[in-house]
Amino acid sequence: MITQEQIDALRGVAVKAGQCLIDGAAVSSVMGAQLEVISPLDGSLLTTIAAGDRQDIDSAVAAARRAFDDGRWSRIAPAARGRMLQRIGDAIAAEAQALAVMGVRDNGTEISMAIKAEPMSAAGTFRYYGELCDKQYGEVAPTAPGTLGMVLHAPVGVVGAIAPWNFPLMIGAWKIAAALAAGNSVVVKPSEVASLSLLRLGEICHEAGLPDGVLNIVTGTGIDAGAALGRHMDVDVLTFTGSGGVGRRLMEYAAQSNLKRVYLELGGKSPLVVFDDSDLEAAAKTAVGAIFRNSGQVCVAASRLLVSRNIHAEFTNRVVAMAENMPLGDPLDLGTAAGAIASEAQMNNILGAVDLAQSEGAELRTGGKRIHAETGGYYIAPTVFDNVTQTSSAVQKEIFGPVVTVQPFDTEDEAVALANGTDYGLSSGVFTRDISRAHRMVERLRAGLVHVNTYGGVDNTVPLGGVGQSGNGHDKSPHGMDKFRNLKTAWIQL
Q: Fewest CB within 10 A of the end CB: N or C in the chain?
């Protein structure tokens, strides 16, 4: 899909300064402020982006509202919307190599993952929702003779979307494509840590013919642009992927403003349960990839390993050995298995969490330190903590980095109790050859997603969402459109 020669040809390409996209035009922020974009690969200045604030959000929301109200998108035939979304998907795929390399320079994901998980995933999402546009039906209620009850799907209006820095294109597409498919106008606030690929996506959408004002993008900090979007009185629905702390603030902003619906995907502390009848080599290889790819900066990352006691030592040794032999470093090298931490601040947060875990008595088996500091970039060695307690901060708190804990268990009931013993419930996994046990675990694990003898195997046909403090609502699948539609009942006397 992409060669090292192609990557090397793109790695030094100058990146233009980012501007906001409002009503079809690239514009500077009203105040003219800018934010520096620091590459996590080597700590160098990559470019700048506009530092939008409340005034810029006001302009973007007003443009989105005009576009929605005049029907330039909301009232065209669903099939026409579908053709446009598919055209956008094709345009993303045509530019996948450049998008992937630019994204890696912006957030540090290893290119072997980024090419599939970012532009190619986003292209697939736009194509998927393009296909779905004219295949969504309302309902006819079983009413009494002489009456007709109908349930219609109506777009909500203006959708505010706040995207994270770990997979901005992939997750941004989940929200943008589904909201557009439902007939809404959208205002996106990318993470200030990684905005470049979503800015280019906005350009691609308008180059493909998406009407002005239907998709608007305002870059800036969460404190300024994000808060303004959350508090805006003319945003009908807000969708967010990110940290629990920010999610709580967004719910407060909704309460302080117009009681807009807020949908949150807030990460987790996902368990991977390994029973003693498993293929240990396959389970260990899967476990290592499930936590250390993208340096653990994955919302569904399997950051807790729960292992049958009689295989605990052998399995942990396998994981440690594999972690220590992972090729780490330059994310733009196809041979790299795990790239950079997205920002210096996040790197310091992870190292602080490692120090805290050690102070609480967790046994550090490997990693736990910054590496490749001489490059100026932000890299942390894959880190394994063994024999941690259930109350340890490393078990209970999301670290969002290349850090995994290992806990032994004796019985299936104990494994379930440990797995469900956090505030989160996004993803989970089970390795076992016992089909009955697999079904029991699928039923008993408190998570929106359960993997069996694999991890991370999902696509657009199934929803992703969590329970507990992992959030509410779902991205992907036909259910991904549910957030962006209102049910409208028509009661007709015949």
A: C
Could you give the C-alpha distances from 439 to 21, 257, 468, 491, in angstroms and in order? 48, 44, 22, 43
Q: Quick one: CA dihedral 428, 429, 430, 435, positive or negative?
A: positive
Q: Which two tokens stand for residue 283?
A: 């389970």
Nearest to 122 by CA among 192, 201, 214, 183: 201
The single residue listed with the structure tokens 């050859």 is 433
- Nearest Cα neighbor of 291 from 393, 382, 416 is 382
Question: Which residues 6+ apart lie within 8 Å of 345 measured at CB?
Answer: none
Is this prediction's pTM over 0.85? yes
For the chain, the farthest-separated pair of C-alpha atoms sits apart, in whole angstroms, at: 79
The answer to whether residues 150 and 492 touch, using CB atoms and an 8 Å cutoff, is yes
* Cβ contact 365:320 at 8 Å: yes
**Residue 16 DSSP label:** P
pLDDT tens-place string over residues 11-61: 999 999 999 999 999 999 999 999 999 999 999 999 999 999 999 999 999
The structural domains of the chain, ordered by start, are 4-266+471-493 (3.40.605.10), 271-459 (3.40.309.10)
